[in-house]
C-alpha cells in the first residue's frame, strides 16, 4: 500500500491497521475506539488518573511512557527539532508543529460561532468565553469578574500597587510586563502597529484602532443631547463638555 518496511512482523501488522481504519479496541468507559490495544491501555489511564511513569529528575508523573520521554528532553536541554524556515529549535515535535503554523498562517482550531481561527486549542478555548460571557474568576477585593485567570492576576496588581517591572533606561516602574514593553517602544521609537491606509505607525494597538475611523466617513457615535455625530467615542465625550458648560453657566446666571 505505502511501501514502508518493518523489522518485525508484529510491527507490520500494527501498521496495516492504519490503512484499514479498523478500531476493534473499545474503551468501556467512554466507548472511544482504538486500532491498537496499547493505545487503549494508555487511554484508560486518563480515566483512572493513574500516572505510573515518573521523572527521576523532578518527580513529575505521566500516564504514558512517551510523554515521560518527551518531558525528559527538557531536563537534558535537547532541542533536536529544527524549523526549516527560521532555524529555531524545539524540544518537542508538537512544539515545532505549533511554531510552523506561524509561518504558514495555519489556524486549525476554528470557533463554531464566529468562524475565527486559532493556532492553539487553548487560544480557542479562551476566545470562546467571549461568546458565552462567562466570567468565573472573581476578585476577592472588589468582586470584579474576569473570564480568564491571567486577567484576574493582572487586575490584582492594581490593588497591591506592586510595580515589579522597571525600565532600565529611565527607572520608571510598571505593574505589568506588557506595559513595560509598550513603554520601551517609546525609547526605541518603535511603532509596530501600522495603518494600512496611510502608513502611520503607532506604539500601541489601541492607538491604531482609534486612528482608523479617521479614514472612514462613518460617524456612529452620537451625542444624546443634540444628536451631533462623531467618528469615535472620545470626540463625543469631549463634545458633551460643551453642553455641561452651558448648563453650569445657565445655573449661575439664574
UniProtKB/TrEMBL annotation:
Family: Belongs to the krueppel C2H2-type zinc-finger protein family.
Entry GO MF terms: DNA-binding transcription factor activity, RNA polymerase II-specific; RNA polymerase II cis-regulatory region sequence-specific DNA binding; zinc ion binding
Domain (C2H2-type) ranges: 1-24, 25-52, 53-80, 81-108, 109-136, 137-164, 165-192, 193-220, 221-248
Organism in which the protein naturally occurs: Araneus ventricosus (Orbweaver spider)
Compartments where located: Nucleus
Keywords: DNA-binding, Metal-binding, Nucleus, Repeat, Transcription, Transcription regulation, Zinc, Zinc-finger
Cross-referenced Pfam families: zf-C2H2 (PF00096)
PROSITE patterns linked: ZINC_FINGER_C2H2_1, ZINC_FINGER_C2H2_2
Protein name: Zinc finger protein 226
Principal cellular location given in the protein's record: nucleus
A cellular component term, taken from the record's GO annotations: nucleus
